[in-house]
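User: Could you check the structure of this?
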Amino acid sequence: MIPQEIIRRKRDGQTLDGASIADFIRGLSDGSISEEQVAAFAMAVWFSGMNRDETVALTLAMRDSGDVLDWSDIGRPIADKHSTGGVGDNVSLMLAPIAAACGLAVPMISGRGLGHTGGTLDKLQSIPGYDITPSAALFRETVRDAGCAIIGQTANLAPADRRLYAIRDVTATVDSQALITASILSKKLAAGLQSLVLDVKIGNGAFMAGLDEAEGLARSLVDVANGAGVRTTALITDMNEPLADAAGNALEIENCLAFLRGEKAGSRLEAVVLSFAVEMLMTGGVAASPTEGQDLAARALSNGSAMECFARMIHQLGGPHDFIDRPDAYLAKAPVILPVEAKRDGYLSACDTREIGMAVIALGGGRTHPDDPIDHRVGFSQLKPLGTKLSKGEPIAVVHAATQAQADVAQARLTALYSIETEAPPLRPVILSKIT
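Assistant: Sure, the predicted structure tokens are below.
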């Protein structure tokens, strides 16, 4: 079928068959379909939507536009996790080695920061020598030996998605649920997964503010992924405050090491990491129940095996062999470090999480343009959780900055982003719902 006929049918609200979708994506990949036609197709999908079968067909066609990894020689279940992004969301850094220590293989394809959210790859590049674009052979060797490898998308994984996304970005069609679903899942399916867990975040630090919107996207992702043959579940999680007590690249690596040493027990971060570990172990067939999954994950932390997997991954992908023993020797420190003090007595009752992420970017810890360099040293540490009771002068957080002037601005900015009230705020659950 000619491209304009496919566009016309979708424009008019008709259902496209799998063959037509595959033909269109094939033309998108080989350049035989023009950018104008791709833009028209994206807009038609934005207005008319796609049903589950159409979205499955679109996802599979985009997956098959490039390489599809085969891990049959690894001898472990192949699993992964994806997050829609937030502030202080370094879950993947701990979750991948925990899952690996429990018997899963985790070939995790991650991304850079997007908007106000931090990027897993940017955090890992705080570590000297860490290679986010290894050869296919080194990627496979690392997954086999360390149990996990966190890298960036290669040129040959779902290349149709890169072209389609670039066109969506300039045609106001990024927020189509069908196109979001196919974009996320085509890359995950190309990584050869057998199971996947999804972290769909809501709140003032997430891309989605409301529960209905988040559950709609989670349902679409879960239904399409399972329809494409990958066992998938999703958790809706709260992002109305930073998840970790650090926001910034090297600072979140330090936070990761502290977590793997068992120093973040009882935190919201621990609740999220362990909840996703349980989901990964159950969907991957390693644990038969939540209790068994919880026990396995807790044991991987307490006996040091998760830390060992993390250390092997770092070293095999080019990082220092003694990184976990001497992180201070390798993680660059900001020259100016200042506390952010509470202006009065009371309880931390709320914060503008998105703006905290933007404050990290303003310090140089993120990008306003795709080719901007990143200062991995900067950000915030020792962020107090909401509900903390403070006296005037006690620190809400600590600023790490490149200059005194930047530190002063960030200090004032962060102070204004937190509300302090005389009454303690109600406690919010961090895991809001589960989609299966």
